[in-house]
Amino acid sequence: MRRALFFLYCLWAHSTLFGQLDTAFYLPPIPEWLDQNQEITLSTPFPDAEVVVFNSDSSYFQTVNLLQGVPQTLALSSQITNLWSTYGAISLTKAHQPMSRTALFVRSNRDIMVTQRVNHVFNQDLVTGKGTRALGTAFLAGNQTKIVAANPAPEAAMGFISVVATEPNTTVVITLPPGILNTAGTNQMTVALQAWQSYTTTIAENFQFAGASIVADKPIAVTTGGNHYKQNSGAPSQDGGFDQLVPEDLLGSEYMIARGIAPTGLDYLVVIPTVDSTEIKINGVVQGYWDRASPATITFAGNQSNVGDLAQLEASAPVYCFHITTGSNQFQPELGMSLVPPIGCTGSRAVYATRMSGLNTHLLVIVPTSGVPSLKYNGAPLTASTKTSANGLWKSIYIPDNQVTGTWSLTCQKQFHVEVIAGEGAGTGLSGFYSGFDSDLDLLDPYLNLGSSILNFPVRCSTPLPGFFSIQSCNRPVEVVRTKVVSGLATVSDINPWDTLLTVQPALGFAGEIWVRLVARDASGSMDSVLMRFPYYPEGADLLPDTVQGCPNEPASIAAPFGMDQYLWSTGATTQTVAYGGYGPLVLYATSDSCAYTDTVWVVSADPLPRVLPRTILVCDSSYVAEIGEFTGVDSMAWRGPDSTRGVAVSSPMGGFSMAWDRPGEYILEKFDANGCLTYELVELKLNPPPLILQEVDCPQAWVWLQDVSLVQTFLIHEVPQALDSVSVTYPFDGVYSIYAVVEDLCGQVDTVEAQLPYFCTGRDQRWFPTAFTPNGDGKNDRYCLSSSYGGALRFAVYNRWGGLEYEGPGDSCWEPPLGTQGAFVLRVIYPEIEGYAPREEILPILALP
User: Which one of 231, 569, 663, 827 counts the least CB within 10 Å of its CB?
Assistant: First the structure.
């Protein structure tokens, strides 16, 4: 299931990309009939990729964790039972029939480059995987044209056309040129294929099939060429030359090619028009006119000393252009064949690759003149070369074998092409382009300036989130036609659809990754789409789960959010993902653009032990001994308590374990089973709470009850004894009534509790507000006091005749002015708020008499 899900994800993730950079590749099998050694080389300019290489039934399935800028090679050398070939190859006996398991497929979660190399001791060539750009329904086959019939040496020389289907019920029709037959004696083949099935037809070397038609009713991928061909120079050497095609609708009409190091007459182009009467020019000189599917052979002048000489091919209509050359400087070398990408909106900005092991390896770099200053080889400016050639707008740079390192890289701000040529004496030779074959709109990674299906942005902690991208198109302007949030909670704002900027506003309270699908279209109608990944974590956001499952012998894999500027774990690790099976907490310190984060995760057993104590334990004393019984599955146990206390459970005389605790609070138990797996348990030790009087008024009734008591001795409300510990009372007048109780608490101790019951349900009260008093010092009526059933809930204030405040206080207090005070005063009485009644006040005059 995991494999299937991975394939589905990758199929969904890929979009229109730079030809060599893609997330999906389809490699039809290559005929080989003795040493069937093949190599699949993978590389990526992006930060790390998870790649799988597999065949139709996953009998071949390899997972590769690909690091940025570090190519990896898979070798296929073992013959498979009933196939009589390695995976990725096909034996002669299996030709002319639908086959399963022979073709290879590549999927990746990041954009990668794929090459397929046949590594036979006498026959080598390089297929550059075209990714999804290899898929189409109409192709014309390429093949070397300077070949003659040859005696087996010891393998038979053979041309081939090999296809692989990508959808069920695909019909493929292969039509060879008139008079040309395959080795089964047929000129036209019609074959029905299911998804992932391949079909290969072979043609004798004396039948020239360049220009053969391959059409299908559903997308297929096609590889054509030949093995062990003999060149017409009379040399005994034989070799293969083949490459994967792109469909006709991706062809161009202008190509730039640099001469290889084949001897005079054997460095040449095979040009196949797609329409009749196509005019072909080389360096501005008309070479002639050719009809559709009629191959034109155009030979480079000079010899090995002319390596790197530029030839500009121009055609009046789209054409296939194949370069036949070699990396061997012998007079009678073996040759390779590569499909040349058109110039314009094609090429690569970053290529990471390796030498062709066992062979002299040379590089032919073709770059726009304006891009030369930014061209870097192995990270350094490419300033020295034994041979360069230029025609004004373009320049070729030849990097000879003695300068090609084991693993090499080329990067440039402008799109460039690089052709690898390799060989060894007269033994073998090959060639292949490490370049893009796109001609449509491409949306680029703004940081790397490369085509990508996913644009990754760093973590942000402030809003809005800026999104931006770059564009490669020969048909501007480019319009953003759609943006949609496909994951996360946010809104997208694209004020100007003609620029390369947008903003994302996360929803309030959201933290996590936001994925936005963006679709753009250029003036020609070409469309491309990318997924934009915005990690958003405001300060204080949770970065990690509270717990993960793992054990010391099976550590948990813990991943922090993608896109942080820095990761630092409490173990000292600085990677995004760590493996941890420890007992204590794992702490992550991380930083983003302007925020710092700290989060903690605990590793718990995937098979947790059952709880051994109640969640809450009530005690009468702060000292407590927790007893754990036998047969709980606990092998050992430790605890951590309040105020940094900690300890280890000791064996109990009764069996099991015991732990002595001396203060209330939360205790974390660390329970280990026999395998050392850890289960946490949280226990709260609480002192029994003191007795409480609780009340709730729901007019006209008031409920009063006692809580946390074991025995009630006396219970009085407004001095009236109550028979139960929970009662309902009503009163005819509003007021504040006293509550008194003598009880035994939960630990059996006698205690006294008191409270007041505010009762304001009737709107009626008992009150007396005197109108006069005599503060003359005789001890009678020297103070002004109110009497009310409201008690202290009532408030009053006294003002003098000029409005000055003389006194303010609760209703159960008194105003005591200086002795001898006389005159008229104003009394303001403020009643407590009563539900359902308007606020109430009274204003009364009062007199202070002698």
Answer: 663
Secondary structure letter of residue 551 according to DSSP: B
Q: Quote the pLDDT of residue 3.
A: 39
Per-chain mean pLDDT for the chain: 89
Same domain flag for 696 and 683: no
On whether both 462 and 511 belong to a single domain, the answer is yes
- Same domain as 807, residue 724: no
The structure tokens listed for 379 are 């990270």
Confidence of residue 568 (pLDDT cuts 50, 70, 90): very high
- DSSP state letters, 206-227: TS--TT-EEEEEEEEEEEEEEE
Whether 29 maps to a domain, the answer reads: no
Decide if 301 is inside a domain. Answer: no
The candidate with the shortest Cα–Cα distance to 325, out of 342, 308, 346, is: 308
Same structural domain, 532 and 457: yes
Return the pLDDT at 84: 86
d(CA 815, CA 246): 103
> Position 711: which residue type?
L
8 Å CB contact between 660 and 670:
no
CB atoms within 10 A of CB 676: 14
pLDDT (tens digit, 9 = 90+) per residue, 50-74?
A: 999 999 999 999 999 999 989 999 9
> Strand 136-140 relative to strand 213-231: parallel, antiparallel, unpaired?
antiparallel
In contact, 22 and 131? CB cutoff 8 Å: yes
Give the number of other CB atoms < 10 A from CB of residue 218: 16
Residue 148 has pLDDT above 80, yes or no: no
Per the listing, tokens 């009409």 go with 253
Q: Could you give the percent of the chain with pLDDT greater than 90?
A: 61
Other beta carbons less than 10 A from residue 700's beta carbon:
10
Count of structural domains within the chain: 5
Kindly state whether residues 446 and 530 are assigned to the same domain.
Answer: yes
Residue 2's pLDDT is 35
End position of a domain, from candidates 671, 687, 703: 687
CA distance 466 to 421: 44
Does residue 277 have a pLDDT over 60? Answer: yes
The reply to whether omega before 28 is within 30° of 0 (cis) is no
CA gap 302, 261 in Å, rounded: 10
CATH code of the domain in which 803 resides: 2.60.40
Q: Are 135 and 440 in contact (CB under 8 A)?
A: no
Task: Mark which of 631, 664, 687 sits at the end of a domain.
Answer: 687
The tokens for 7 are 């394939």
Same domain for 776 and 751: no
pLDDT tens per residue, range 286-315? 999 999 999 999 999 999 899 999 999 999
- What's the domain range around 749? 692-759
pLDDT at position 8, please? 33
**CATH number of domain containing 663:** 2.60.40.10
- Give 582 or 305, the one with higher predicted confidence: 305
Both 563 and 627 in one domain: the answer is no
